[in-house]
Design a protein that fits this description.
The chain has about 160 residues and is α+β, with helices and mostly antiparallel strands. The protein contains 7 helices and 4 strands.
Length: about 160
């Protein structure tokens, strides 16, 4: 059962088709897992938000529907500040979607997601999947840090 809060994520989602430029056969081999993990850690360093990437091995006829499903399956809608972002990529169907939870969406609006998706799509169309993912992670981190910064350590911890 979809909670009303999780359904709200749908307003924050953007789907983009990239045509036949995302070759599913070599897409995963061109990705460098550790570089993506490092980019996520760096992007999350200054925010309470969470960024996840899901690369689908299946054909996703509707990337947005699939992204929302995975958003809930990963329980991203249960973050305390409702500020998680999922980047969903489906190489076999040549699509991707970006889903943000209700509070990050309320702060950045549709235009931020459309801009992020356009930038990601352009990099995919230029046949640069790593750049597409890394850039999107970095920009998601900027959005999150601007609206959900990590609190500064309290004075007691600084004195230690």
């Amino acid at each position: 059962m979809v909670s009303p809060a999780a359904a709200e994520a749908s307003a924050a989602a953007v789907r983009e088709e990239v045509g036949n430029l995302m070759n599913p056969d070599d897409f995963l081999t061109r990705l460098q897992h550790q570089q993506i993990v490092d980019a996520i850690h760096e992007a999350e360093r200054n925010t309470t938000g969470q960024i996840r990437i899901f690369i689908s091995h299946a054909l996703a006829l509707d990337a947005l529907v699939a992204a929302k499903k995975h958003f809930e399956k990963l329980q991203m809608h249960r973050r305390p500040h409702r500020n998680a972002i999922l980047i969903f990529v489906a190489p076999k169907s040549q699509t991707f979607a970006i889903v943000g939870d209700e509070q990050i969406h309320a702060r950045v609006g549709d235009s931020a997601w459309q801009s992020l998706a356009a930038e990601m799509g352009a990099r995919f169309k230029s046949n640069h999947p790593m750049q597409a993912i890394i850039h999107t992670v970095q920009q998601a981190g900027v959005l999150l840090a601007g609206h959900f910064p990590k609190p500064a350590p309290n004075e007691a911890k600084r004195a230690m």
